Amino acid sequence: MVKNINAIRGMNDGLPKDTALWQRLESLLTKVLGGYGYSEIRLPIVEHTHLFNRAIGEVTDVVEKEMYTFDDRNGDSLTLRPEGTAGCVRAGIEHGLFYKQTQRLWYIGPMFRYERPQKGRYRQFHQLGVEVFGLHGPDIDAELILLTARWWKTLCIDEHVKLEINTIGSLEARANYLTVLVRFLEQHVNVLDEKCRRRMYRNPLRVLDSKNPDVQALLKYAPRLSGYLDEASRAHFTALCEFLEQAGIPYKINERLARGLDYYNYTVFEWVTTSLGAQGTICAGGRYDSLVEQLGGRSVPAVGFAMGLERLVLVVQALNPALHTLPVIDVYLIALGAGAQSVALQLAERLRDIFPQLKLVTNAGGGSFKKQITRADKWGARVALLLGENEVATEQVVVKDLRSGAQETLAQSKTAGRLAQIFS
Ligand code: HAM
Hints:
Layout: H1 16-35, E1 39-40, E2 46-48, H2 49-56, H3 61-66, E3 68-71, E4 77-80, H4 85-94, E5 103-112, E6 124-133, H5 138-154, E7 161-167, H6 171-187, H7 194-202, H8 213-219, H9 231-246, E8 252-253, E9 265-273, E10 281-287, H10 291-294, E11 302-308, H11 309-319, E12 331-335, H12 340-354, E13 360-362, H13 369-378, E14 383-387, H14 389-394, E15 396-401, E16 407-411, H15 415-422
Parallel strand pairs: 1-5, 7-8, 12-13, 12-14
Antiparallel strand pairs: 2-4, 3-4, 5-6, 6-11, 7-9, 9-10, 10-11, 14-15, 15-16
Helix pairs in contact: 1-5, 5-9
């Protein structure tokens, strides 16, 4: 027997039963983005590996162990993008998008990380990312948060997602803090596991993310970043908090929120839900004012976030099943007997010419009247059109309202007019 070939672990097929919800979500989300004046940017899925090493940081989980990296036939090291910000900045520099102008951009698509798959965590997942360039005030941070809050309201899940925010200060303030943190860690090096010891000098902030309970217990006594923040970042953060309060957006300040990618400064934020278990962050981001310069551009302030679409789908399925209905069609066209199928195909094409929005399925593959009407019900059709041998001979059609059961026989030329009345 030939062995089946299955999909790669953690990389999922989008099955027809789910794609209707995905399409509906994507359309709602991007409509809101359009309403705020954001434009779509389409980016490659593969980039040079050193783009991610430089942008995300060499000593991060993503770069150290999660990237899908390979050499192409030329021997160049390429990587399947683990996130969208680095590619977006690369494209902006390459095409001069940041020169004397601001940009409000969004992108959508698959990202790849070699993580241990579980509910809400996959190796191929999809992000809807939003990035703004050229604005450094807290007003734009507030706009991004208001935009996401509008999404939750549109999807009726606003009661179930909570906003956590923090400021991680300027790069200089963080450098000062890191000196103090390293001194503290050196004094307690015996408590640190091997991974933390390795990170202590290369990227001490990452020690704060340690899942080791002994390290976490020690960190309760560690100096806090909030004690070392510079005045400018404090003022920026206070202004952001005021914008949020005045706009009626509840938030919690989470001083431990540092984010797992190296490019952030000032504001960081996450929208978290309790309805997903361990993988509760559905949307996360922050400012990254040095990244454009770090990747070779001029100094351009930037802020953005990305939403995990699989996580959003799980939340919507759990909390708002009304959005997750099967695709429903308007009309099912039944064809029975000699010559009927060809007439049905032509009638269907004429109706599609007149009503481009009409959802019409023509029966295919034959079957008895009973079988075809069962299929119409399965599709959730509102109306069935019947073409039998008689109707073909007399150029008529039977119009059956599947909700009331009422039916009438009309000239085929009158079908469009009757449907217009039914669906008006
Ligand atoms: P991130 O926190 O790594 O940030 O990912 C953003 C979101 O993507 C997460 O909150 C989560 O919803 C989703 N996500 C991440 N990994 C997985 C996974 N393995 N499976 C399913 N969903 C996942 C970034 O990627 C930044 N580029 C966000 C950003 C944009 N910051 C500024 N601009």
